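Researcher: Structure for this, please.
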Amino acid sequence: MNSLDQGTVRRFASEIGNVIVQLGSSEIPMRRSEPLRWSLRRADRDEYEDRTGIVVIQEKRMMMEDFDTEPAAAGTVTEIAKQLAQAAPKFSAYALARKLVLLDFYGDRLSEEDIPPLLSRISVPLCIDEIWMTRREWVSEDDYEIGFEKIFVRSA
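Model: Predicted structure, token format:
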């Protein structure tokens, strides 16, 4: 993957912004009250060889809006609580160490963004200092690397 330096990204953003500000409100293709998650990356030339310029690809969450996610959220909360309770005794011999748990989620009813808010429904065992989760970092339209995100830190 080619990385762009900050100057190049700023130049692209400025060019895109200059085009958008010249559009009338009826010409703007999308308006939202919440910001969109987006990324700038090189398009797959095989798929878009007939296009030049910027290619915009909308990746929809797999019809998540159509599902009642509460049963999946409740089940996930129960499983997280169970896994944390099972992990807690493993830390007893490490009183002076920072104790963290890494969670890796699989499923098709919740997205990665749905997970961190679920921690407010769980009583994290006192011996656990941090909780991290794996997060997919997309490097192309159909490939990702595993990254990590801290989702809980016990206050000192």
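Researcher: Any notable elements?
Model: The two ends are 40 Å apart (CA to CA). The mean pLDDT is 80.
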